[in-house]
Amino acid sequence: MSEPARSRTAAPIDELETLIRARYAVIYVVTWEERRVEQRLVALAERRNKQLYTWSVTTGLLRAGDGAGGPRGKGLSDPVEALSAVIEQKEPAIYLLKDFHMFIRPRDCNVGVIRRLREVAQALSDSYKTIVITAPVLDVARELEKDLCVIDYPLPGTDEVDLLLHRICEDVAAATNIRIELGPRDRERLIQAALGLTLQEAENVFAKTIISDGNLSAADVSTVFSEKRQIIRKSGLLDYYESQAVMEDTGGLDELKGWLTKRAAAFSQAAREYGLPAPKGVLLVGVQGCGKSLCAKAVASAWNMPLLRFDVGRMFSSLVGSSEENIRRAIGVAESISPVVLWVDEIDKAMSGSQASGGTDGGTTARVMSTFLTWLSEKQKPVFVLATANNISQLPPELLRKGRLDEIFFVDLPSAPERRRIFEIHLAKRGRRVEQFDLEGLAEASDGFSGAEIEEAVVSALYDAFPLGRDIVTGDILAALQATVPLSRTMAEEITALRTWAQGRARPAARRDLRDVPSTRRKLEIDAQPQEIGSVP
Q1: Is residue 317 over pLDDT 70?
Q2: pLDDT at residue 529 above 80?
Q3: How far is residue 468's CA from residue 479's CA, in Å, rounded to a whole number?
Q4: Which among 64, 132, 135 is positioned nearest to 101, based on CA atoms?
Q5: 300 and 269 inside one domain
Q6: Number of domains forming the structure of the chain
Q7: 455 and 426 in contact (C-beta within 8 Å)?
Q8: Of the segments 200-214, 318-332, 417-431, which one has the largest average pLDDT value?
Q9: Which CATH number goes with the domain that contains 184?
Q10: Per the domain annotation, does 262 fall within a domain?
């Protein structure tokens, strides 16, 4: 079923008034916040000298504000009778029908309501009366597609959340002895964290933070995120990661870290006023186990944003059309709680079957990935996409072009200084004093090892030393390294091909100097004595 044409404007709130003044007969508003819409219509009706009536299946048709009955002097809970009353009423008015979508869905039992609404739409086209339908989802019979105008009512913006926070602070200060002191920067961080919530959800979580610790500060950002976690759990399509990782947990990758640090403040209101767009995302391509996924977890913590894991496999369903609908819902959920970091792990696996999708699954995979790629190009909400990939041969060229993601970084095997830092991180994380170990020797012995393989060597050494009743020493880790065949040897050809591809196509995630590049030394015979002269990098 094709959807009625949606009105796409920069300010949908103002569009509602424009459509009413243009005498659109029936307006369908997709929103979870019918109270906000009703408050908006109350002010609009007063300014335009119109009456406002509200209808629901439990209350019938009532005049807004005083609870009086509708045009017939009583509440009308039957939808057909309520629509008939709208036609009979002569004065200019706005009629707010709450959750009316239940009666105009494509069902056999809704034939009478659908027919009556079409008649009402024709009758109201030459009057000063407007029907506004509010519903959290768009579900309309095809017969009504040409009679409705559909708009999406946006979630509260920065100004509305700021006003709500100001009112709550005033109410708390007046009613209790609790003092709430928020600096400008702390206030902005708290407001940014609350974006993506409805006003009711934001009010609830602000009250929760005040009750829990008797204060309201930037430290309560994590509590605000807990409200967003509930939204994610209800959707069932995305995973919420409560990451404890920090940038210091990743050894090396200085270029990538610097790039991410520069974009940390790009989600603020000051950046918007400066004319700076929100970052779109980044693709990390590289060797397995070198910290790509760890970076996704660390950047969410550094930016104080929720981290959502996008599992493409969860999008697919056996029902026709369900897979496409699932990915649209997942994208909608991510946008609804933005700003947020959306982590797409191993995106190459998800896109590997898109090119042959027509002959395997009827094109479902291709359509799903097309929806995702189109969203990457056109998204306006601050959703930072961090995608990781190991096999670049499976990536479509559409993903690699500029505009969908901001940058592509190549994550190579760690250099000697980076390996030394990785040993420091994992030894300190397990309560060992790093100065007691020969870090230089460990870094040299682990040449060609990834960060994950270095961590596993430390863990293996702990397993070996624990039954002996002693602490680990450098020799234990060296023995674990010698017993391991690193991936750089097992898949030497694939890694060489990956490095070759990355040259000129991706930015290196870490700085490299000549000392990190393997060199060969040319041997010459001078006076019958073999000598080495110079080096050729």
Answers
A1: no
A2: no
A3: 15
A4: 135
A5: yes
A6: 4
A7: yes
A8: 417-431
A9: 1.10.8
A10: yes
Lowest mean pLDDT of 52-66, 146-160, 308-322, 444-458, name the range: 308-322
In a domain, 275, yes or no: yes
Structure tokens that stand for 409 in this block? 């970084």
Domain boundary among the residues 378, 411, 444 is at 411
Q: In what order do the strands lie in the sheet with 129-135?
A: 60-63, 51-56, 93-98, 129-135, 26-30, 149-152
Residue 147 and residue 181 in one domain = no
The three-state secondary structure class of 88 is: helix
Angle 221-235/184-194 helices, nearest 10 degrees?
10
Residue 501 lies in a domain: no
Residue in the structure block whose two tokens are 């309201």 = 216
Taking the C-alpha atoms of residue 143 and residue 27, their distance in angstroms, rounded to an integer, is: 15
My answer on whether 119 and 143 are in the same domain is: yes
Q: Which residue has the tokens 């991510």?
A: 334
- Whole-number Å distance between alpha carbons of 75 and 62: 6
Q: What is the pLDDT of residues 134-180, one digit of tens each?
A: 998 888 888 898 999 999 888 888 888 888 888 887 777 776 666 66
Q: What is the CATH number of the domain that holds 27?
A: 3.40.50.300
Q: What CA–CA distances, in Å, run from 197 to 228, 230, 356, 481?
A: 7, 11, 40, 49
Residue from 28, 23, 96 nearest 64 by CA: 96
Bridge partners (DSSP) of residue 523 are: 532
Q: Is 85 part of any domain?
A: yes
- What mean pLDDT comes out for the span 374-398? 83
Q: What does the pLDDT read at residue 534?
A: 45
Q: In the numeric block, which tokens belong to residue 388? A: 């990781």
Q: Give the end of a domain, one of 379, 411, 443.
A: 411
CA atoms within 13 A on the CB side of 66: 7
- SS3 assignment, position 20: helix
